Backbone:
């Protein structure tokens, strides 16, 4: 029986741990908060997935060393901007032959590194062992066993297959891929686009407006991916357009919900105080914007969201700026 350590006890980390356990993997979760660990050990993560019973093969601990002991697969499910600090503590505990899986969807502030790059640098993990999982994967839907598909990306095909086999269930279908760059960028940028779509919804705008933002947001993602060496086909797949649609359109999406509250007139500080979970796009928009400037890639939606998050423009001013830009070819 394979053993997995899932470091992080939020909604997506818990849902993915459940999927692995249902696939036959023995799973130990790590959580910083003792009350959540106690909840998991009692059979339910009431803080993040209330009402959802957890499989028998799952347990939890506040001791990272205990969770990581003899793990074949290490799953990192913490907020992206905390990864570096956590890995400083965990690097020496990660088994040298374990596959290391990133569930995180962000770009690091200050360095503009993707999560796999942070794992390689700080965790001292070789590239063939680093895996990225991404797709239209809203945690609660997967936790209640609604059918979904995802992408398991790794430069080493054998490692990708091990992880895919360890999370495959009748309701969760993983596909393998070797385009780690594209998979990560798709997951990170869609959070920023979802903020913009949420703002449009919060201002009472309809489906034409939202569809326009989604489509042009996908174009921005593909432009950045092309500049960084990603496969263009990736953005037409599950971790590209699939994840983008789910995150932008679902009320379960934290980034979409955060954007809606901004669109209704709340400030970033007010929304942050009112919500208990991390909306990755709020912080990653700055690093993605910086990445686009570094590579000379035009990303007006990302730039507009940055302006709102900084408090430089209102959501309505953001829309006006986007709609009055110089006309150009759609393919430009």
Residues:
């Amino acid at each position: 029986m394979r053993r997995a350590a899932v470091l992080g006890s939020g909604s997506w980390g818990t849902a993915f741990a459940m999927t692995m356990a249902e696939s036959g993997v023995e799973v130990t979760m790590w959580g910083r908060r003792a009350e959540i660990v106690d909840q998991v050990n009692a059979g339910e993560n009431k803080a993040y997935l209330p009402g959802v019973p957890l499989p028998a093969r799952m347990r939890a601990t506040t001791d990272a060393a205990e969770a990581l002991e003899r793990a074949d697969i290490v799953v990192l499910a913490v907020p992206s901007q905390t990864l570096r600090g956590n890995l400083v503590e965990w690097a020496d505990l990660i088994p040298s032959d374990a596959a290391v899986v990133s569930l995180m969807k962000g770009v690091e502030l200050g360095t503009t590194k993707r999560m796999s790059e942070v794992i390689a640098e700080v965790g001292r993990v070789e590239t063939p062992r680093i895996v990225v999982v991404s797709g239209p994967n809203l945690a609660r839907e997967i936790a209640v066993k609604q059918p979904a598909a995802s992408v398991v990306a790794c430069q080493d095909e054998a490692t990708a297959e091990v992880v895919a086999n360890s999370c495959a269930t009748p309701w969760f279908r993983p596909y393998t891929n070797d385009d780690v760059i594209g998979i990560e960028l798709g997951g990170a940028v869609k959070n920023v686009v979802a903020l913009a779509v949420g703002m449009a919804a919060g201002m009472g705008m309809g489906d034409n407006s939202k569809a326009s933002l989604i489509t042009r947001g996908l174009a921005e993602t593909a432009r950045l991916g092309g500049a960084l060496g990603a496969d263009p086909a990736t953005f037409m797949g599950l971790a590209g357009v699939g994840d983008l649609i789910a995150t932008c359109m679902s009320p379960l999406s934290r980034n979409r919900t955060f954007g809606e509250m901004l669109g209704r007139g709340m400030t970033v500080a007010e929304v942050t105080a009112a919500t208990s979970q991390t909306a990755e796009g709020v912080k990653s928009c700055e690093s993605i914007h910086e990445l686009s400037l570094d590579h000379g890639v035009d990303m007006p939606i990302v730039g507009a969201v940055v302006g709102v998050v900084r408090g430089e423009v209102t959501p309505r001013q953001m829309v006006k700026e986007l709609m009055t830009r110089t006309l150009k070819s759609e393919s430009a």
